[in-house]
Each structure stands twice: as structure tokens, then as C-alpha cells.
## 1
Amino acid sequence: MKAETYPFVVRPLPYEYDALVPVLDAETLTFHHDKHYKTYVDNLNAALADYPELQKKSLTELLTEIDMLPAAIQTAVRNNGGGVYNHELYFDSMKSPVGQEPSGALAEAIDRDFGSYRQWKEQMKQAAVGKFGSGWAWLAADKNGVLSIVQTANQDVTNLEAYTPILLVDVWEHAYYLQYQNRRADYVDGWFHLINWRKAGKRYEDILGENRQ
Ligand code: MN
């Protein structure tokens, strides 16, 4: 996903704070990006501050080698490194709600692996709404391009060695509570209209391209 290393920086949103209205209002998005996501970045940097050898590693390397990190920072890297990874992909996977749908190779793979876009949407919604407590629902592809829906808890990432994330939805209450209160299903229904299918399709085609090399 990136070769960025310590100190990790807060990536600006790739759109204005009010770009996702009416699905996500500017207040919700501002708190989510400027406060919640920034805190994960700050805490990840703090965890790595005393470990110069780890400061050369990319975020993906850190997250796939958690068991080999010093015990004192494993939990901090898992929670905050995951928080950085997940939020960067989440914000980068959305755009203004204009009713775009998947196309190209990704659309074909969704039909193949879920039956139809509509069936994928139902299963993805179930994964997001049915996730108990805080976490994420993902659409991910294995090395052969086979798609699956994955749930993770807290700020855990999906298995980044086995899967390439295509897109994901944040179902922590902080992602929607200011605007939707407890109505997670309404937030998830709206989120489907925000998916940046062009970027998702590009991520998917990159996997297929790697297989051809
Ligand atoms: Mn969040």
C-alpha cells in the first residue's frame, strides 16, 4: 500500500470535509479524520520513538511482523498501526455520493464470487451491521484475485500476507455516531453510495497485473 516509514504523517483527505454530504456531514468527517485518525498516527509514532531499527520499516512490514516486535510495543503497534492503515484506506476509498457502481474486472469478480453486485451488497451490509462492537468489514482479494468479505475487530487489519484489501467500512461508533447516533445500518446503507469504485477497481487490477509478471 505504501513505502512510508516513521515518522508517519496525517494524510489529508483526498476531498473536502463536506464532500460526502449528505451521507457523512462535515462535523462527523472532521472529528474522524482530524481527531481519531490523527491520534492513531501520533500514538504509532510514540510507540516507535525509541526503536530506530523499526523506524525503517513500512507500515505493512510492521503489521505483518507484530509477533517479532519487542513485547513492550506489540499492542501499541497492533492497535495504532492498524488504526493508521485502516483509516487511510477507508478515507481513500470514499468519494462524493454519485451512485457509481463497480466496473471492469472487479465487477466481473464480484459477480463470479458473490453471484451479483446486489448479493455482494447484502453480504457486505450483513458483515458491517452484524459486527459486534467496534471493528471493520472488508472486501479483500487473495493472490489469485478471488474475493471475500472479512470482518476484523478493533483496529486489527486483515491478513495482509494472504489478502489485498480492496475497500473497507469503519463500524466504530466514532465513524457515525454524531450524525446517526445508534443507527449503524443507516450509516452503512449510505456508505455504499460513497464507495470510490474507480480506486477499488484499480487496486483489484493491480493484483491481477502482479500475477501476470
Ligand atoms: Mn474510525
## 2
Amino acid sequence: MSISPQSIPAFLEAISQDIEANAEEVTALDQAIGDGDHVTNLQRGLAALQEQSAELSEMNWSAALMKIGMTLMSTMGGASGSLYGSLFMAMGKKAKETEVNKESFAAAFRAGVESVKARGKADLGEKTMLDTLIPAVESLEQNNASDLPAQLDALKKAAYDGMLSTKDMLATKGRASFLGERARGHIDAGARTSQLMICAVAEVLQETE
Ligand code: ADP
Ligand code: MG
């Protein structure tokens, strides 16, 4: 298995299973400091992607990433729909006319994360998905010289620690920002789903390495 469009069906399957297995927890997180719809928004997007799975696996990686972004954007709804949509669309744009390898993947992921920052007008420390995504992309960049299993271990840890870091934060963006101090003590739902998705992909790659 490699980071190529042929692996998309396996990635989508693993992501959907992990999101399903943690759906109740994510709903509870979004109920605590948001409106509770985050996981159903994401599952709607994932179901639409699974219908396109075969088609996506035959596209070049730039086109596949763009299509994933457009599908998420048009099916998910919520703040997270446009943010996850931008993430993948910007990745696809950056990937244009490049081969998939560790360097080009890290560069595409970086472009995707920058696009989420721009669209959400948010950065590290605001109790959002970016608290998972920013440490994850930094880890990928810093460990590009390591062998793939070690790089993926570091990636999973960075995503996990980033997700956990949202627990004690105050929110300054999104619905949770209306709660002030009451947002403290709850992990951000989008940070959790980002971490689950990153870890699912990393594990598929490690299992088949
Ligand atoms: P909504 O907030 O519209 O109900 P969702 O529940 O689907 O949308 O998604 C909420 C998640 O989106 C949050 O948990 C947070 O991670 C992320 N989010 C919300 N606003 C922003 C923002 N401005 N920048 C980055 N991420 C954000
Ligand atoms: Mg919500």
C-alpha cells in the first residue's frame, strides 16, 4: 500500500470504520461545546466519497484530491464541510503535475493546512481541527528523512497529542467560542475527527508496509 489513488478505497474504508466506532464520543464532544452535528456531517461526506471510491482510485492524485474536496464541500455542511473541503482542494491544487512521494505529499498537506487556516481565519491554540492538523503536518515535514514506519509513528503521536491539547483550551473560533470558560475541559470535535482520520490512514500504510 502506498500514498496513491489506488489506495483510496482502503483509506476510506479504514477512516469510515474508525469514525463509526467513535461516532458517539464525537457527538458527545460536539454536544458539549457545539451543536452535536459534527459526526453526522462528516459521515454524510464519507458516504458520498465511498460511492466515488472506484472512480477516485483511477484518477491522478491531484484530481482525486480535488474531487474529494469538492464532494466534502458540497455534501457535509457545517463549518467543517467547508474546512475539510478546502483542505483537500488545496492539497489537490498543490499536487498538480507532481509525482506522489514523501516530499510532495508533505508539501501538499502543508498547502491544505494553510488553506484551512486561511478559510477559518484561525491558527494553533484556538481549539479547532487546526490543533491536530498543524502539529501533524509539522511532524511529517520534520521526519521526512526517517523511514516510513517511524515517520508514521511520529505523525500519529503528533496528531494525538494535538487533539488532546484542545481539552484545556478556550475556544476563540467556531460555535464553542460563545461559551467562554465553559469550553474548557472538553476536547474539540473537529480536532478528534482529524486525529482519527490521520491515524486511520497511517495505520493502513503501516499494516501493509
Ligand atoms: P458547525 O460548527 O457549523 O456545527 P461542525 O460541527 O461540522 O460545524 O464542525 C465543527 C468543527 O469545525 C469544530 O469542532 C472545529 O474543529 C471546526 N471549526 C469550526 N470553526 C473553525 C474555524 N474558524 N477554523 C478552524 N476550524 C473550525
Ligand atoms: Mg456542529
